[in-house]
Design goal:
Elements (H helix, E strand, L loop, with lengths): L1 H14 L1 H50 L1
């Protein structure tokens, strides 16, 4: 989808350079925000995974103590 937006920006640039430049800058900014969001999502998923592992360890420890 992002590639399609870049193609559209290139077509707009051919028709109207100023508008094409503005659209290109918007797409660049959007790309950066998407990259930041992806990094944050990965970090969150790692934290969730670690918490899930701690919960599993805790559950196992509780089962051992109960028997």
């Amino acid at each position: 989808m992002f590639q399609e937006l870049i193609k559209i920006a290139e077509e707009v640039y051919v028709l109207d350079k100023q508008l094409g430049i503005r659209l290109g800058k918007c797409l660049e900014s959007l790309g950066k925000k998407i990259a930041e969001h992806n990094e944050e999502t990965k970090a969150t998923n790692v934290k969730i995974s670690k918490l899930e592992n701690k919960i599993k360890s805790f559950e196992s420890a509780m089962r051992r103590r109960m028997h």
